[in-house]
Amino acid sequence: MLLLLVLVIWKIRSDDSCVCWDGYQVEKHDDGTQFCRGVNSRKLFHCNLETPPSCRCTIRNVVVELDVGTNSCFFAECENKEEWILYQMKNPEFHELEK
Questions:
Q1: 13-71 tens-digit pLDDT
Q2: In this structure, are residues 65 and 55 in contact, taking their beta carbons and an 8 Å threshold?
Q3: Pick from 6, 27, 69, 71: most CB atoms within 10 A?
Q4: Is position 12 within any domain?
Q5: Which CA distances in Å does 50 have to 75, 76, 99?
Q6: How far is Cα 8 from Cα 25, in angstroms, rounded to an integer?
Q7: Who contacts 66 (Cβ-Cβ below 8 Å, separation ≥6)?
Q8: What are phi and psi of 88, to 5 degrees?
Q9: What's the structural domain count of the chain?
Q10: Is there a contact between 50 and 29 (Cβ–Cβ < 8 Å)?
Q11: pLDDT on residue 66
Q12: What does the chain look like in DSSP terms, one character per residue?
């Protein structure tokens, strides 16, 4: 009975150990590792990263904010490049992982 309780507590803690940004969900791999996968973007990132700034772009005179985790505007850098530089200096582990 005690072993069962320990296993249940371990399972709950392991599920809570991966925190993802809004629009991302925990993806568990066969080897037990966990990552954050974008629901719409399908991008893959490490768990527990500080939320990055939104990437702002002007496309045809309309300001657009891209999905969380996107750090370029298809054809150019984000207009809020300074925010991204500071974020990446503070969070060197931020990078998109292999899909």
A1: 455 699 999 999 999 999 999 999 999 889 999 999 999 999 999 888 888 888 888 88
A2: yes
A3: 69
A4: no
A5: 26, 24, 21
A6: 22
A7: 54, 55, 56, 57, 73, 78
A8: -70, -30
A9: 1
A10: no
A11: 87
A12: -HHHHHHHHHHHHHHHT----TTEEEEE-TTS-EEEEETTT--EE-SSPPPPPPPEEEETTEEEEPPTT--S-SSS--TTHHHHHHHHHH-TT--PPP-
Dihedral sign of CA atoms 49, 93, 68, 79 in order: positive
Is residue 7, in this structure, part of any structural domain at all? no
- Supply the pLDDT for residue 24: 96
Q: Residue 64: what pLDDT?
A: 87
Nearest to 55 by CA among 22, 77, 23: 77
In a domain, 14, yes or no: no
Token representation of residue 92: 């060197």
> What gap in Å lies between CA 64 and CA 84, rounded to an integer?
16
Q: Within a domain: residue 52?
A: yes
The terminus-to-terminus CA distance of the chain in angstroms comes to 40
